[in-house]
Design brief:
single chain, mainly beta, ten-stranded antiparallel β-sheet
Length: 377
Amino acid sequence: MLTRPLWNLRALCGFAAVLAIAAPSLRAAEPFGKTAEGTPVEAITIQNDSGMSARLMTRGATLVELHVPDQSGKTADVVLGFDDVAGYESDRNQYFGCTTGRVANRIAGGKFTLDGVDYSLAVNNEPNALHGGKTRSLDKVVWTAEEFEPRRGGAGVRFTYTSPDGEEGYPGELKLTVTYVLTDDNQLRIAYRATTNKPTPVNLTNHTYFNLSGAGSETVLDHELTIEADTYTPNDATQIQTGEIVPVDGTPLDFRQAHRLGERIESLLTTEALGYDHNFPVNGPFGGRPRACAKLKDPVSGRVMTVRTNSPAVQLYTGNHLFGQAGKGGKAYPKQSAVCLETQHYPDSVNHANFPTTILKPGETYEYVTVFAFTNE
């Protein structure tokens, strides 16, 4: 069952070792501004011994920067974002780098029924609910952060937040932990954990926009992508799943062999998705050890990002709604200049009995992990 304990941290390739030692203070924390309500927000920078660094923000447990070396050793920030919290609270922000939930992706009509009770959520992506809500979704609240030193090297930050019963219309008090670990072999590991006191749907992901040429590069359509998925879940005209699970064979969604993102996108530009915005059930069993999910390569810089996860699926999104907004350092983020690979459950699972369940119950633990590993080719 999906929401029972899904993997043991002590058995997961020694993953317990990277979560273990708490540091006494946020040594790398610095002010990042205040929310519109006046709540202070901090940014925390962590780095490894291999030339990578990550900057994380307490609003939304968000990845703000990720500096990765290329094949010549030159480092670039490969994720979209802003220079302060004001940018993230503006209409220029499209969930850049955040922890997304309580339920990531869409819920049809903003409605679901659980144990005979009907629930209504904010409709913030007409006519549907998107990414957990309108004002108090997980990307918009300020989390508590604790920096720690992993036993096996690298650096980590653990974010915690308790979402009260009824927040954004969801039942149950939900206690959440999201842990980022930057390892010395250039892996960024994100672990999610949640418990509840009432049955409630949960589907967490990270919504980072990647461009391996560097944030602000003109396009991501020249990147080469592989996805370990034989099937996908089709969308209707409102971007809600039809409930079908169909083969990718013979479609522009077949990434079992590497293809440039722009190679076959033209046939999707006139659809409701405006490009790639599709859910792929990842091959192999979920809930155990992370398995291969996707591989993204920038042929120019040589940077390669390999994704592993024990989540059921991955959402491919090619930044179809970016509009040239100014980001970090004033750089513009044009349409399709970044790609998201959001490891998660199937969208609208709460309304599809044939999809893996997203219902978390009291006494159960929601636990998933995603690994973004960086190399050069």
